[in-house]
Amino acid sequence: MMPSTPTFTTRLSEAARTVEASLEALLSDKVAPGEIARPPRLMAAMRHAALGGGKRLRPFLTIEAARLLGVEGQGPLRAGCAVELLHCYSLVHDDLPSMDDDDLRRGHPTVHKAYDEATAILVGDALQTLAFEVLADPATASDPSVRSDLVLGLARASGLGGMVGGQLLDLSAEGRYGTATLSEADVRLLQMMKTGAILAFSVEAGAILGQADGTTRGSLLDYGRALGAAFQVADDILDREASAEALGKRTGKDQEKGKATLVDLLGMEGARRECRQLVDKAHACLDRFGVKADTLREAVRFVVERQV
Amino acid sequence: MMPSTPTFTTRLSEAARTVEASLEALLSDKVAPGEIARPPRLMAAMRHAALGGGKRLRPFLTIEAARLLGVEGQGPLRAGCAVELLHCYSLVHDDLPSMDDDDLRRGHPTVHKAYDEATAILVGDALQTLAFEVLADPATASDPSVRSDLVLGLARASGLGGMVGGQLLDLSAEGRYGTATLSEADVRLLQMMKTGAILAFSVEAGAILGQADGTTRGSLLDYGRALGAAFQVADDILDREASAEALGKRTGKDQEKGKATLVDLLGMEGARRECRQLVDKAHACLDRFGVKADTLREAVRFVVERQV
């Protein structure tokens, strides 16, 4: 596929830089208005969980979707940070010994390894709370209906009917709670809940900030869903192919745990074909926006070609 | 002290009944709009965590504070349920093996005992998310600024600068993270964060729903803070006095873990005196409301005299 254009790469790294700075400020030791105190150990562990890592894909999608609708600045940046905080909380809890039991994340010790298990549970809890606090803060949007729509959207994408529900299904898929034979529909449902919903919301958040009409918001949501699905097929393909060195984390993990992936169900060629179809579908959702949407178009290719 | 009046007891049990019914509906297996699916195991474990227990003190405070300002019905009920869901999430996570390691809660197996540790972590996560979802839903308040103020208030009371921060300090107070010698100021800070902030918000939520002016909201918040502090001193006194049978949970736990309580710091007589002073202080905050606030007045006595 095509290499990323300079504009895309610049915007992606620029977004990552401002997101990092914004997260640093949100997670500083300085007590904020309305707070009683910030325990230094908790703050240090939260910074360990949320700073210095990742491409910041989710905030990038929020920022770019909002920019497409003419909204820039603190609003999209803060909303993007909220999604990223939510994502980081899910990683901290997923890594716990009773969940996926991972010692490393992006080459660094996971929070329960660097600190301890109790601290890691509280870090995840507090990162989730902070995500909602950031969205509900007037600094994110002066219009309170935008703030409450953002909260509602993130809650629906991440709760029992979204990400957390998907994580429970994922544990079930390991056969923890009785025999698990997953159909193709089950695997798709699981992936849509576990990772797709938050990615789709990352894009939808931009539409909420832009106070888009129903059609525009629908197109962007469909784009986000296709991108989320493409992300997951690409992840399944990567998991099968990549070496442990290249990824910096254990691979073939799903196979190891006997979990069915789309590669098992569709075969490698079938998975690649589906990935291409999803890229086309995501692109088609952006037709109405013309060249202004080129960055979001490139984002889909980036998602399926990412090496980390 | 005085026995509770019939009005008070009726209102308390009526609130508990409607809260229970409302939580049952929120935690049903039926997939709600905007959700992909509700995994049955997760829902059952969430119901285990949130249904059939407790006096529902926090929602009662929200409902009564709102009633004082002339607001009744679904709004205060839903906001109260959100605070209760948040409270239940904190209990599920606090009971985990790496935290307080409790096998029983109100005489029943804790969630990680009845299910497993991974499920209990996800149950807590999803209960927290649901709390914010309920607050941000238009069914709670038609005015979006009320919804977003409720979200912001609950997030601040329960996150890193409130309840979760307090739980981290509580773990530190056990000496887990180096020697812990807590001053009186430390113990007060810890208690204000861990339990006081959410109790105070339970009352403040009623003021937000009633769109109270600053003075009224301030008086109710001060009342909530005094009530929260009284709750905790009473808890420390109970913990020292009560027998395991009467409480239905292990007691003297704080002593066992070497944690300082206000009884250690003030002596039993000093703690009792402080408790009486806090009751008076809470009552004084209600002076401006006249007899209409009698239920909230009785709530303070109820809190310090409760046997469970």
Task: Describe what you observe in this structure.
Two copies of one chain form a homodimer. Chain A has 308 residues and is an all-alpha fold. Chain A has a single domain, classed as Farnesyl Diphosphate Synthase (Orthogonal Bundle). Chain A has helices at residues 6-26, 40-50, 57-68, 74-94, 111-114, 117-136, 144-158, 163-173, 184-209, 214-241, 244-247, 253-256, 262-285, 294-305, and strands at 104-105, 108-109. Chain A has a two-stranded antiparallel sheet with strand order 1-2. In chain A, helix 3 (57-68) packs antiparallel against helix 4 (74-94), helix 3 (57-68) runs antiparallel to helix 14 (294-305) and helix 13 (262-285) runs antiparallel to helix 14. The mean pLDDT of chain A is 92. Chains A and B meet through helix 2, helix 6, helix 7, helix 8 and helix 9 of A and helix 2, helix 6, helix 7, helix 8 and helix 9 of B. Chains A, B: This is Polyprenyl synthetase family protein. Chains A, B: Belongs to the FPP/GGPP synthase family. Chains A, B: InterPro entries: Isoprenoid_synthase_dom_sf, Polyprenyl_synt, Polyprenyl_synt_CS, Prenyl_diphosphate_synthase. Chains A, B: Keywords: Isoprene biosynthesis, Magnesium, Metal-binding, Transferase.
